[in-house]
Design goal:
single chain; 536 residues; alpha/beta; MFS_Transporters; transport; transmembrane helix; membrane; cell membrane
């Protein structure tokens, strides 16, 4: 098995590679159009069937990795993607293109949730995981566009070579992904059968829904613009801006998505309260510049606009992935990210398909200009929605600070152990665990729990095994740190599995440290303390 660092790198490579296939056909669209006398609308339909197949996969098997594991789903999707690439090499008309795109869409939809969750779970920390998982789509798309453009322009067999190369890459990655260690699944029985879980559905954990709804306009604005670049971008460059080199077309399309990767990385260092503006501001400005470039026919201005808009694309999407990664329970991340990609690809395809219809009636340039203007309007709506959500959350926090939250005593039991714990604070707040020392019980943290709960944290203080009202096994071997950590991971899953801050005192510090060492994906922070007790 691969170590954690290599597994993280490989997971990122798989995430990028699956999206490379999405953009590889784009520089070839003008070739297909001339060779088979296809209309702009037909090309848009070829693009749209890919997204429809992808959505069908997301709605059915998009979260299946939560049940069977990330590794088998990623491997199967890569093999299916290799088959899709082979279908491109033998396509002789629009029917062959559609067949290849459908298989490709099914593969990418199957892989999307699993690879994103695999990246997040193999990352050294949640911040790096969200950065890479949101960077790889734009990086993969950029690689596909530039690679295809270069091979079409300079290499032999322009319609086949890029797909043969990608077929080999996907088969190699499918073999390597089996060497990635699989995160242990919960031993608790699933609530539904495997076949029932395959029924089309898009669900979110209750605690994740407010965050997700607030992010929908931002996700839609970014992916709608990406859909324009990949569906009509080549036609805009060749028809409106008079670019006739397939390589240059691929490079300019790649510029947008390379800038997206840069925006993703840069946004990780932006102040948290300003990350939404950090992405949406450049997105709107960049689209304005590209509209001006199309109106005046100035290619360098279009490239500058693509750079700015691409930066905003990456920064905005990283903000969304990071927020959802923090809000999503560990055991349901595949489902959350699959639902995110359903929204993403609806925004990616539906406006592009409508634009393809509009081109037939109004022409390419007017359609592209109106598309850009509507995307700017969506960006402004996203800013309003994000600001309203932040103010509502801040208002709720102000109310919480004025109310002393009551401690609630609860019992959680499994076949192996019963844990008594105290709980206070909002159920949808960030999670914080307090672990007591020896001798002690969870109630010792009451003052700290009430203070943090009033500030919006969801605070939990369990009685560790053998203490308070938790079960106390007679066998001394039942008190190893491994057993105590297992108690806490079961409780953590019961509470939703969102990343938590773990605070320990004395013996509780040893346990909190062990949680961080063996279950790092459960931790957003660790505080280890040990202080003397003085009688007042």
């Amino acid at each position: 098995m691969l170590n954690r660092s290599v597994s993280f790198f490989l997971a990122g490579a798989v995430g990028a590679a699956t999206l490379t296939a999405a953009s590889a056909p784009s520089p070839l669209y003008p070739v297909y159009q001339r060779l088979w006398d296809l209309s702009t609308f037909t090309l848009t339909v070829v693009f749209a069937v890919y997204v429809l197949a992808l959505l069908a996969a997301l709605l059915t098997v998009g979260s299946i990795s939560d049940r069977v594991g990330r590794r088998p789903v990623a491997c199967g999707a890569l093999v299916l993607l290799a088959l899709g690439m082979l279908l491109f090499t033998v396509a002789t008309g629009v029917g062959g293109l559609m067949a290849a795109r459908i298989v490709q869409g099914l593969a990418v939809g199957t892989a999307a949730g699993a690879t994103t969750a695999l990246i997040m779970e193999s990352a050294p920390n949640p911040r790096l995981g969200s950065t890479i998982s949101s960077a790889v789509p734009s990086l993969g798309i950029a690689i596909g566009a530039v690679l295809a453009g270069a091979l079409v322009e300079f290499a032999p067999l322009p319609r086949q070579l890029v797909f043969w190369i990608l077929t080999a890459v996907y088969l190699v990655l499918a073999a390597l992904v089996w060497l990635v260690p699989e995160k242990a699944r919960s031993d608790s029985p699933p609530r539904e059968t495997m076949w029932r879980s395959l029924l089309p559905s898009a669900q979110l954990p209750r605690a994740t829904r407010p965050v997700f709804v607030a992010l929908v306009p931002s996700i839609s604005a970014t992916w709608a613009l990406g859909g324009l670049y990949l569906s009509l971008g080549s036609s805009i460059l060749t028809t409106v801006l008079d670019v006739h080199s397939h390589f240059v077309v691929g490079v300019i399309l790649g510029v947008f998505f390379v800038a997206g990767t840069a925006g993703t990385v840069a946004s990780a260092f932006a102040p948290p309260r300003h990350r939404a503006w950090f992405g949406l501001g450049p997105l709107a400005i960049g689209v304005l510049v590209t509209i001006a470039a199309m109106s005046t026919g100035v290619l360098p201005l279009y490239v500058v606009g693509s750079l700015i808009a691409g930066f905003g694309f990456g920064a905005t999407f990283r903000f969304a992935v990071h927020a959802l990664g923090e809000a999503a329970p560990t055991a349901r991340r595949g489902q959350v990210f699959a639902t995110m990609y359903i929204v993403s690809y609806l925004a990616f395809s539906v406006p592009a398909l409508a634009a393809g219809l509009a081109v037939e009636r109004f022409g390419l340039k007017p359609t592209a200009v109106v598309y850009g203007a509507l995307d700017i309007a969506l960006v402004l709506f996203a800013l309003v929605a994000g600001t309203a959500h932040a103010r509502r959350r801040d208002g709720e926090d102000d109310v919480r600070r004025d109310i002393a939250p009551p401690l609630v005593s609860r019992i959680f039991g499994t076949p192996r152990h019963t844990t008594h714990y105290l709980e206070c604070g909002p159920a949808d707040g960030p999670l914080m665990f307090f672990l007591h020392g020896w001798p002690g019980i969870g109630l010792l943290w009451r003052a700290q729990m009430e203070a943090f709960a009033a500030d919006g944290w969801h605070c939990v203080a369990p009685d560790l095994r053998g203490y308070g009202d938790s079960s106390a096994p007679a066998d001394t071997d039942a008190y190893t740190v491994e057993e105590v950590v297992m108690d806490l991971t079961e409780l953590h899953d019961h509470l939703g599995g969102r990343t938590a801050v773990w605070i320990g005192h004395d013996w509780g510090s040893a346990v909190a440290g062990a949680v961080a060492a063996h279950e790092p994906e459960r931790c957003r922070g660790v505080v280890l303390t040990s202080w003397a007790y003085y009688r007042s």
